[in-house]
C-alpha cells in the first residue's frame, strides 16, 4: 500500500490533472457499483430495488440489477469535473493563506486571546465558505447537467433533475462537508487533500449515483 501511495504521489506531482481524473474515475465507479449493489439487495427503498426484485428467477445472472452504462456515465461525468478541483484548491490556498497562532510575548499572559484565535480561524472560515457556497454549486450543476444530457434527457428534464435531485443533494452535503473541508483545508497538505477527501467521496458518490438513478424517467 505504501508503494502504491508513493507512485500516486509521484504521478500527482508530475501530472496532477491526469492523476486526479483517473483517481476520480475509479472512485466514482466504485460509488456507483455500491449504489447499484445496495439497490439489488434492497437496502434502499427505491425504483431500482423493486426492479431488481422483479428479475427472472430462472436465470443464474438476474437481468437488470447492474447497468454498466450507468457506471460509465456517472464515473466519466464526475471525473471530468475533478481537474477543476485541482485548480480550485490551488487558488483557494493562495487567496486565503492560513495564519499560525502568534507567540505569546507577554509571559504574564498564559492564555491566548479570542482575537488570536479569530485571526487564525478567519482565513479557514473564508476557505470553507467560498468552497461550499461558490465552488460546490458549480460542481453539482455540472455533474447533474452532464448526467442528464448523457442519459438523453431534454432541456426541460435536465432542469427538473437539477431542481429535484441536484439541489436537495447539495443541501444534504451542507450538513456534512463543511466539517470535512474544515479539516481538509486546515491540516491536510495540498497534495494529500484528494486522498483524504476520497475516503468520504466514495460513499458520497454512492448516494449521488443512487439519487440520480432514481430520478431517471422509466419507459
UniProtKB/TrEMBL annotation:
<protein>
    <submittedName>
        <fullName>Uncharacterized protein</fullName>
    </submittedName>
</protein>
<keyword id="KW-0472">Membrane</keyword>
<dbReference type="GO" id="GO:0016020">
    <property type="term" value="C:membrane"/>
</dbReference>
<dbReference type="GO" id="GO:0005739">
    <property type="term" value="C:mitochondrion"/>
</dbReference>
<keyword id="KW-1133">Transmembrane helix</keyword>
<dbReference type="Pfam" id="PF04117">
    <property type="entry name" value="Mpv17_PMP22"/>
</dbReference>
<comment type="similarity">
    <text>Belongs to the peroxisomal membrane protein PXMP2/4 family.</text>
</comment>
<dbReference type="InterPro" id="IPR007248">
    <property type="entry name" value="Mpv17_PMP22"/>
</dbReference>
<keyword id="KW-0812">Transmembrane</keyword>
Amino acid at each position: 500500500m505504501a508503494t502504491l501511495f508513493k507512485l500516486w504521489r509521484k504521478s500527482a506531482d508530475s501530472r496532477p490533472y491526469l492523476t486526479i481524473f483517473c483517481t476520480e474515475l475509479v472512485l466514482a465507479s466504485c460509488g456507483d457499483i455500491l449504489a447499484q449493489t445496495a439497490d439489488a439487495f434492497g437496502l434502499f427503498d427505491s425504483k431500482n430495488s423493486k426492479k431488481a426484485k422483479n428479475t427472472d428467477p430462472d436465470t443464474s445472472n438476474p437481468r437488470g440489477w447492474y447497468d454498466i452504462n450507468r457506471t460509465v456515465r456517472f464515473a466519466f461525468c464526475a471525473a471530468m469535473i475533478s481537474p477543476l478541483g485541482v485548480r480550485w484548491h490551488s487558488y483557494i490556498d493562495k487567496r486565503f493563506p492560513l495564519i499560525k497562532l502568534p507567540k505569546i510575548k507577554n509571559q504574564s499572559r498564559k492564555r491566548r486571546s479570542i482575537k488570536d484565535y479569530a485571526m487564525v480561524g478567519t482565513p479557514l472560515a473564508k476557505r470553507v465558505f467560498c468552497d461550499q457556497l461558490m465552488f460546490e454549486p458549480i460542481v453539482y450543476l455540472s455533474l447533474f447537467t452532464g448526467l442528464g444530457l448523457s442519459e438523453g434527457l431534454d432541456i426541460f428534464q435536465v432542469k427538473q433533475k437539477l431542481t429535484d435531485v441536484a439541489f436537495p443533494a447539495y443541501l444534504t452535503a451542507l450538513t456534512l462537508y463543511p466539517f470535512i473541508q474544515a479539516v481538509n483545508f486546515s491540516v491536510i497538505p495540498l497534495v494529500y487533500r484528494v486522498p483524504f477527501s476520497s475516503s468520504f467521496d466514495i460513499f458520497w458518490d454512492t448516494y449521488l449515483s443512487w439519487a440520480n438513478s432514481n430520478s431517471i424517467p422509466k419507459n
